[in-house]
Design goal:
Distance between the termini: 62 Å
Number of helices: 16
Number of strands: 5
Low-confidence stretches: 353-360
Strand order of the largest sheet: 1-2-3-5-4
Strand content: 5-15%
Shape: elongated
Mean pLDDT: 89
Structural class: alpha+beta
Order of helices and strands: HHEEEEHHHEHHHHHHHHHHH
Helix content: 40-55%
Length: 360
């Protein structure tokens, strides 16, 4: 009843916002129950929402062992593997509207037609039919997820996958090869990747923003090559992430960025450094050697030109094709680096699990 009250309250608020003279109708209203299971879902499910841009949002609904998704404002033609459409029920609809903070799109006259003569004060009233309420809000498409697909347990990964598989409404013109690399990151990348960052990037309106979000994902790992050695020497039982946080907050130390990036890239296949150098080439000058040092210099240089706006800063000017090449190789680097360093960064040291005295 609480969700229904809030849902109809939004309709009244919408009507009054447009027409201050809109009457306040007495009585309680709700959507007719479909089944006991659906009513229990409405009462007991847990929901997480993710608001994107341009009227798009997603809701993850967890109920018992099931995970469902509701998508608002998505142009879905190619759904991610592991998602299956389900019919909209009163419970799913109410959760999607309330937890997703979805506002009505109806006019005052449409709302009046629905609420004026239907409430518990009217004999025989047993609730509104869902079909009466659906047109008053933006369309929500619901899917159930297959538990065998781990990426669907994370709303940011699931939304990223759906968006890249249906790129037509996205501001950036992703090439099919770029989209495929992003899909592989969202669907098959290590769980330690901060997926919020590439997700923010793909809904941005410029290529620099997407590049910088991928750069930030790599930047998080800068301390790993040096601190992974230190935690062994110190018999430190916690994660590199925790040690890096303590050192930075207590001593204001953090790695030199270009040097740290070089150390990370040195752990990748040499061919990937070559792809970085080629993708980020800006002039017709002779191409530098395909070394981790040169790859790091290219990435960090572009990062500085995107971030800073000084007279000495080079203006970033790439074609859409060049940006696609850059985003593709950056996405590959993020996935490969987290394959190598993600667990080391996030998880406690698996070897040093006892105090030093106990080990001795």
């Amino acid at each position: 009843m609480k969700m229904s009250t809030e849902l109809f309250g939004r309709l009244s608020a919408r009507a009054i916002e447009i027409d201050p003279d809109f009457p306040v109708y007495a009585g309680n209203r709700w959507i007719s129950r479909e089944s006991d299971d659906d009513a229990e879902l409405m009462s007991n499910a847990r929901a997480v929402s993710l608001v994107l841009n341009m009227g798009r949002s997603a809701i993850q609904i967890c109920y018992r062992e099931q995970i469902l998704y509701g998508f608002v404002g998505f142009d879905v033609e190619n759904i991610s593997e592991g998602l299956t459409p389900v019919d909209t029920t009163p419970g799913l609809f109410a959760i999607g509207i309330i937890e997703g903070d979805i506002q009505p799109i109806a006019t005052p006259s449409q709302i009046r037609d629905i609420v004026e003569d239907q409430s518990h004060l009217i004999d025989g009233y047993s609730g509104h039919q869902l079909s009466q309420i659906l047109p008053l809000f933006p369309p929500i498409i619901f899917y159930t997820s297959n538990s065998n697909y781990d990426f669907l347990k994370d709303i940011e990964r699931a939304v990223g996958s759906v968006l890249v598989r249906n790129p037509r409404p996205l501001p950036l013109a992703l090439a099919s090869s770029t989209a495929q690399h992003l899909i592989e990151l969202f669907e098959a990348g290590p769980s330690t990747v901060p997926f919020r960052l590439p997700l923010q990037g793909i809904v941005s309106f410029n290529w620099q923003a997407l590049f910088l979000e991928l750069y930030r994902a790599i930047e998080q790992l800068y301390s790993v090559p040096k601190l992974r050695v230190l935690i062994e020497d110190l018999n430190y039982i916690h994660s590199v992430r925790e040690l890096a946080r303590l050192i930075e907050t207590s001593l204001s130390w953090r790695p030199k960025e270009e040097e740290a990036l070089t150390n990370l890239l040195a752990g990748l296949e040499p061919s990937l450094c070559g792809q970085v150098v080629r993708a980020l080439k800006r002039t017709q000058d002779q191409e530098p050697k395909h070394t981790p040092e040169n790859a790091a210099r290219k990435i960090y240089g572009l990062r500085n030109d995107c971030v800073h706006f000084r007279p000495a800063t080079e203006q970033v000017s790439f074609s859409a094709g060049q940006w696609n090449d850059i985003i593709s190789i950056m996405t590959v680097c993020v996935k490969e680096l987290y394959d190598i360093y993600g667990d080391v960064f996030q998880l406690p040291n698996p070897i040093k699990t006892q105090p030093l005295q106990a080990q001795l």
